[in-house]
C-alpha cells in the first residue's frame, strides 16, 4: 500500500510517499481502508516534539474510511447502541496514527460511525479536532449556555470547530484573526464579535463586548504572544485552555494577582502524554454531547479545501501559508494498491 512518511533531521521536515505492507489488526484494533484524512498543524511543527530528530514515521492523525477487518475482542463502535458490532464495510472515523495511508489501524474503542449526512472529507475533520474541542469546552472548560468564549486564531481548524461547538452549546463567541476576509466567513457560522488582529491588543474590545465582565472561557490556539492578554480578558472564575502555539512562543508571564483574585483556571489540552485508555475515555462523552449535533446538522465540519492523496505536500504548503479557514483534507485513491 502507499503511505506518506515524514522525516525529521532536527531542522527540517521532509515528506515522502512510500510503499509499506498493509497492516494487520491486533486485539481491539480495526483495519480501515482510508477514504480521507485531514491535516493538523501541530504534527508538522518540529518544535511540538511529536517526532524525535533523526527519525522517520508514517504521518496523519485522524481520518475516515471503511472497515476491512477487525481484530480479536472488537465489539461495537462508540456511539452505537450497546451490543452492536463493527462490520466489514461500515463507515467509521477515528483518531489513528498513519492516517495518510491507503490503509490504517484504528483503536476500536475510538471508532465512531460516520453520520449519513457527512462526506468522507467532513468525517475526516472530526475525530481528533472535535475530541480536542470536547476536552476544552466541556470536560475541562465546563462551558455553559450564555457564557462568553474567546478564541484566538479562530480561523484555524480547532478555532472554527470551537466556534461551531460553542454556538451549538448556546455560548457567545469572540474570535481573533489577522484576516478580515476570514472573519467575514465565520460570521455566517455565528461568530458574535470579530476582532481583526494578530497582536495582544484585544482586551478593551473583549471587555466592551462583555459589559466589562470578561470572557468565561479562552481557547488559545496562538501561543505565548497573546497569553498575558488572554489573562487580562478573563472574567471571575474564568478558564483558559492552551491548545497550541503556532507563534512558537513557549513562555509567557502570568499575572499571579489576577490568577489569585479572579480564581482563574489554566489548563492544557494535549494527547501527547495520554495513554490509549485515557484517549479512549473521552470518546463516549463526545458521542453523547457533540456528535448528535454533527449528525443532525447543527454543527457542519468546515473543510476549506480538498487535495488528492499524492498532493499532500501541496496541502501542507496551503496550511502553512495560512490561506485556509477550517480544515484541510486529502482523499485517498479510488483503487488502493495492495
List the topology elements:
Layout: E1 2-8, E2 13-19, E3 29-38, H1 41-44, E4 55-58, E5 62-70, E6 91-95, E7 103-107, E8 112-113, H2 120-124, H3 127-139, E9 148-152, H4 157-168, E10 172-177, H5 180-187, E11 193-196, H6 203-209, E12 215-220, H7 227-232, E13 234-242, H8 256-261, E14 265-268, H9 276-281, H10 283-289, H11 291-295, E15 303-308, H12 312-320, E16 327-331
Parallel strand pairs: 9-10, 9-12, 10-11, 12-13, 13-14, 15-16
Antiparallel strand pairs: 1-2, 1-4, 3-5, 3-7, 3-16, 5-6, 6-8
Helix pairs in contact: 3-4, 3-10
Radius of gyration: 20 Å
What spatial form do the alpha-carbon principal axes imply? Answer: globular
Mean pLDDT: 93
Write down how many β-strands occur, each being a DSSP E stretch of 2 or more residues. 16
Q: What is the straight-line distance between the termini?
A: 5 Å
Give me the number of helical elements: 12
- Total separate domains: 2
Q: What is the CATH fold-level name of the largest domain?
A: Quinone Oxidoreductase, Chain A, domain 1
Low-confidence segments:
79-83
Overall structural class, as computed from helix and strand content, comes to alpha/beta
CATH homologous superfamily grouping of the largest domain: Medium-chain alcohol dehydrogenases, catalytic domain
Strand content: 25-35%
The helix/strand order is: EEEHEEEEEHHEHEHEHEHEHEHHHEHE
Helix content: 25-40%
CATH architectural grouping of the largest domain: Alpha-Beta Complex
Biggest β-sheet: count, sense, barrel?
Answer: 7 strands, mixed
Which CATH C-level class of the largest domain is it?
Answer: Alpha Beta
Amino acid at each position: 500500500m502507499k503511505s506518506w512518511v515524514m522525516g525529521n533531521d532536527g531542522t527540517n521536515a521532509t515528506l515522502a510517499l512510500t510503499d509499506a505492507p498493509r497492516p494487520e489488526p491486533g486485539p481491539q484494533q480495526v483495519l480501515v481502508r482510508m477514504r480521507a484524512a485531514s491535516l493538523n498543524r501541530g504534527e508538522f511543527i518540529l518544535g511540538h516534539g511529536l517526532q524525535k530528530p533523526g527519525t522517520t514515521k508514517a504521518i496523519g492523525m485522524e481520518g475516515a474510511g471503511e472497515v476491512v477487518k477487525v481484530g480479536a475482542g472488537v465489539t461495537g463502535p462508540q456511539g452505537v447502541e450497546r451490543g452492536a458490532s463493527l462490520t466489514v464495510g461500515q463507515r467509521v472515523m477515528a483518531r489513528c496514527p498513519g492516517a495518510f495511508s491507503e490503509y490504517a489501524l484504528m483503536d476500536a474503542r475510538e471508532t465512531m460511525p460516520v453520520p449519513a449526512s457527512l462526506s468522507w472529507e467532513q468525517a475526516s475533520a472530526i475525530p481528533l479536532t472535535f475530541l480536542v474541542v470536547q476536552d476544552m469546552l466541556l470536560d475541562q472548560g465546563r462551558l455553559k449556555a450564555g457564557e462568553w468564549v474567546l478564541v484566538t486564531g479562530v480561523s484555524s481548524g480547532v478555532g472554527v470547530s470551537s466556534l461551531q461547538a460553542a454556538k451549538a452549546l448556546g455560548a457567545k463567541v469572540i474570535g481573533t484573526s489577522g484576516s478580515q476576509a476570514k472573519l467575514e466567513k465565520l460570521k455566517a457560522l455565528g461568530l458574535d464579535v470579530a476582532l481583526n488582529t494578530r497582536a495582544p491588543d484585544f482586551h478593551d474590545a473583549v471587555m466592551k463586548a462583555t459589559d466589562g465582565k470578561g470572557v468565561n472561557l479562552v481557547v488559545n490556539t496562538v501561543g505565548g504572544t497573546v497569553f498575558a492578554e488572554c489573562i487580562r480578558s478573563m472574567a471571575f472564575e474564568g478558564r483558559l485552555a492552551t491548545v497550541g502555539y503556532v507563534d512558537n512562543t513557549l513562555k509567557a508571564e502570568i499575572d499571579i494577582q489576577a490568577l489569585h483574585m479572579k480564581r482563574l483556571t489554566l489548563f492544557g489540552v494535549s494527547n501527547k502524554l495520554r495513554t490509549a485508555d485515557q484517549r479512549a475515555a473521552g470518546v463516549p462523552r463526545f458521542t453523547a454531547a457533540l456528535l448528535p449535533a454533527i449528525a443532525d446538522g447543527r454543527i457542519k465540519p468546515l473543510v476549506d479545501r480538498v487535495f488528492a492523496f499524492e498532493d499532500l505536500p501541496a496541502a501542507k504548503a496551503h496550511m502553512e501559508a495560512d490561506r485556509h479557514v477550517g480544515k484541510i483534507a486529502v482523499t485517498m485513491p479510488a483503487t488502493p494498491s495492495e
